[in-house]
Amino acid sequence: MNVTAAFIEAARGLSHVDLLLTNARIVNVFNGEIEHGNVAVHQGRVVGIGDYRLAREIIDLDGRYLLPGYINGHTHIESSMLDINRYAEAVISRGTLGVVTDLHEIANVCGMRGIEYILDSARRLPFSLFVMAPSCVPATAMETSGASLSAGDTRSLLRRKGVIGLGEMMNFPGVLAGDGEVLAKINAAASSIVDGHAPGLGAFDLNAYIGAGASSDHESVSLEEAREKLARGMYVMIREGSSEKNLEELLPLVSDKTYKRCLFVVDDRSCADLLYDGDVDAIVRKAIRLGLEPVRAVQMASINAAERFDLKHVGAVAPGYYADLQVVSDINRPEADLVFRRGRLVARGGKAVFKVSQDVRPTPGGSFNVGDFGTEHLRLKPKSAVFPVIEVVPGQIITRKLETEPPLDGSGFIAADIERDILKLAVVERHAGSGNVGVGLVKGFGFKCGALASSVAHDSHNIVAVGTCDADLTIAIREVVRMQGGLAVVSQGRVLKTLALPIAGLMSDRPLSEVAAVFGEVGQAARDVGCVLAAPFAVLSFLALPVIPELRLTDRGLVDVNTFRFIG
Amino acid sequence: MNVTAAFIEAARGLSHVDLLLTNARIVNVFNGEIEHGNVAVHQGRVVGIGDYRLAREIIDLDGRYLLPGYINGHTHIESSMLDINRYAEAVISRGTLGVVTDLHEIANVCGMRGIEYILDSARRLPFSLFVMAPSCVPATAMETSGASLSAGDTRSLLRRKGVIGLGEMMNFPGVLAGDGEVLAKINAAASSIVDGHAPGLGAFDLNAYIGAGASSDHESVSLEEAREKLARGMYVMIREGSSEKNLEELLPLVSDKTYKRCLFVVDDRSCADLLYDGDVDAIVRKAIRLGLEPVRAVQMASINAAERFDLKHVGAVAPGYYADLQVVSDINRPEADLVFRRGRLVARGGKAVFKVSQDVRPTPGGSFNVGDFGTEHLRLKPKSAVFPVIEVVPGQIITRKLETEPPLDGSGFIAADIERDILKLAVVERHAGSGNVGVGLVKGFGFKCGALASSVAHDSHNIVAVGTCDADLTIAIREVVRMQGGLAVVSQGRVLKTLALPIAGLMSDRPLSEVAAVFGEVGQAARDVGCVLAAPFAVLSFLALPVIPELRLTDRGLVDVNTFRFIG
């Protein structure tokens, strides 16, 4: 960003600026105060605050509040199920103008090609996408992903414009073991930034993990855990996602002494939450509701993220900063009335008002090499009298490991036990055409008849399906393949409802309102067949992720996460 | 800095660490608390805080406080009159292990060669020198310097290891005027950091200056000025130098809401102050004495500077951070008992205990091309009845402009008026052999007989001299030339006392105690001949700096700084 003589002249009040926002209550993230004044914008940047008069366009804010655009410090945008263009519309209208994202979902499906698709698409959009190179693709060696990223890929990504660091290093066991490839990835990012992901880590192991380079964490679920991480030098990202909500527990961490080391992130936010609740703005409102001083909440959603990631000229309303701004009426319940990107109006009243030019690149499809899938692929042979069962823990993404004596069908294979809510779970490898199908049992969905299937299954995104019988399971899995990605609800041989996710099998190209509506309908369809979970597809999507305790199923089999071993 | 498997193993407590500091009260700059524990150091870095046991060396701190080494956010090390090797001994023994320096003094004399000498020498020394590329060499076009640095030089310097940004942009009038070369320098540093220097700037002009890129300032002398600068996004460097002391005035700026945007700097500190008062540690102690909470004072002298300059792994006692540490006994009056650099003891009880290996590079000499200097060069012709006089303002570096009717000597030239304390002032160009001699009048030194001369004269460092008669002035100037740099006090035709400064005419190669002692003696000699100023050579050194109001003398003549024009 080069400074010009014209910019300086405008800042000195000697020439007309492009835009003047008058009568604003400006949230000042540097001194924590709110000041009344005019803000002048020229060449896409704030030239100053003061009694400016000369302007090509003047907007009287009439005492409304002017805030910096929010910066979301950590998210996987694929979790919105929205294509990058639609995602941008969704979050920009909420006041988010900076997004730090780890694209490990699409990377697990499409590798570098997927990351490049999003990086290149984002350049045409009126927000700043800061990409963290995914560090763990695949998440483990115990599953089959569509791609893997090496330390060489990390180095190559870090040279790309828009890539600012190494994404959450979920493989903390690999770090602690001193794994060569893991350390090579961290060392590739030695001169930039490494995000951490260390649920439950403390004491010596936390020291080692931080010492290795991970300088943030968004996985704290208890106040004590977060306190220790902050004390050891980590930025604490307070996460309020769709499945993981840590704000209420962690807010007491935020004090006069610590608030600069804390920021808000959404991690994974569903399209429904984006539509009905919001993005970072929803966290800000909730934090204020919980007692946080509004200016401090704004700081944690803007300048603190900029500082954590060494982002220049964003996160504040100040001279030289990009005019990425939002106007809100009520500072105690801030909702973006107007959003400006580089001084241009891009959203009004919660609606995006910018046009996305047609993407010149083809969207990357999902890979669905599953051959001719039939019920025979779902057979589960008993090896002993007892069989391990994944138990869903309501409201959390951890699971418990049960053991049960399952019923057998007429052919001697294990069957679902509907009375005891023990259903069949399958993970069908979709990338490599390996024919791998992991089959297991799960407790907690509660439905009596039918099946759910999805191509969103963290992090390898094979097809995951849960059902009461192999017939419905097969139909649901086939439906996902037919759509080349998506969610399906099946009952008694009939497809009841689907949401197509043609982009990498993870995302739709439809607008937020449409995707959220259909997403709501598939969820409702799942509940209609008796599912007792509030967010059945969200729960389902985490059952194949073998980095979160206690028991998971991948395409290669059941994984005891505590021991990192296949069982059963 | 690459992480190794051995480092991780040590951090996990599984192998011996190099050094274990037990029973420490650790100042935690992240949460503002003091915690009790052991700190383990391996491979020059902190591996962790906790109950470590296995160590090759154990030092029991017996409850003493463990702090990060201080980082001085802005200084001109040449002002200490110490060569870089001696300077390092002086400040390291005070707990300073990081120094951000603008080398514009030596650059004005020796150009790139001078900067390279210091950069290369610093690599052998146990502290971190972070160089800001000098932005204003020469400071103005109204004087003759030994070298000038172009925007091309800025670009070249910024590519060098150890150069982290563009030094204080003193030419704020040039910025405000949109001067092409000035903007080219700023734009060369667009992806790094630009330090500001904007005494008294406010409102529109401050916006313009900040918007152009200057993101810090160390020139605030009033609380209101500092408040405005901080609000507009500048880091406020609270300066406590030898001549400029702003701490007491600015300390009320530091609050729970603002302290992270404030840091301590020394700007110019004399050898005497380094010896008898201290470096950054002196500011910390004074701030605590004035009521600042000790941990916050330490934060402002360590992590805040690291954050302002995006310096990684310094400024804290935490895993992965360099083991740049100091031990103090009394947190309310912290003085470094022990100083560790990368885990090795480098100072104890205020004395450096490291050895400086012989420098392989020759030290750069001063340039003293003044020919055969005689009294005839000091003649001052009256052009009208009144003549402008520079009035020294005690305790400040600004001057006032007086007008007087001076007495004439027998040949019709202006003479000193000893009764009214109006002495003759001369600036003798020493670099280019131009023969330029600026001659003027100054009020405020107060001596009745004799002359002082010095080759330290900001920023071009020509020879500046003040005296009651041309004979003594000439002897003093000749003595500085004979020494090839230094300070001299002359009276009644006799050289009373000198301090030789052979390195660039600015610095001595002798140790701190010796330089400070002789520096004290030349000051005393000046007072012995009747000088009423507490720091006559410091005052003298600023009289040739035409960027500070109100009236200055360069080798090319008298400058009215308010209008930026030659007069008289």
What can you see in these coordinates?
2 copies of one chain form a homodimer. By secondary structure, chain A is an alpha/beta fold. Helix content of chain A is 25%, strand content 26%. In chain A, α3 packs across α4, α5 packs parallel to α7 (180-188) and α12 (280-289) runs antiparallel to α13 (294-300). Chains A and B meet through α1, β3, α7, α8 and α9 of A and α1, β3, α7, α8 and α9 of B.
Write out key terms for the chains shown:
homodimer; 26% strand; globular; 568 residues; 28 strands; alpha/beta; 9-stranded mixed sheet; 17 helices; 8-stranded mixed sheet
Short description:
2 copies of one chain form a homodimer. Chain A is 25% helix and 26% strand. The mean pLDDT of chain A is 96.
Task: Spell out the blueprint of helices and strands.
The structure is a homodimer of 568-residue chains.
Chain A: H1 5-11, E1 19-27, E2 34-42, E3 45-49, E4 58-60, E5 65-68, E6 70-75, H2 84-92, E7 96-102, H3 104-110, H4 112-122, E8 128-133, H5 151-158, E9 163-169, H6 172-176, H7 180-188, E10 193-196, H8 203-211, E11 216-217, H9 223-231, E12 235-239, H10 247-250, E13 262-265, H11 271-276, H12 280-289, H13 294-300, H14 303-308, E14 325-328, E15 336-341, E16 344-348, E17 351-352, E18 387-392, E19 399-404, E20 422-428, E21 437-443, E22 451-454, E23 463-467, H15 470-482, E24 486-491, E25 494-500, H16 512-528, H17 536-542, E26 551-554, E27 557-560, E28 565-567
Parallel strand pairs in A: 1-4, 1-5, 6-7, 7-8, 8-9, 9-10, 11-12, 12-13, 18-21
Antiparallel strand pairs in A: 1-2, 2-3, 5-14, 14-15, 15-16, 16-17, 18-19, 20-21, 20-23, 22-23, 22-24, 24-25, 26-27, 27-28
Helix pairs in contact in A: 3-4, 5-7, 12-13
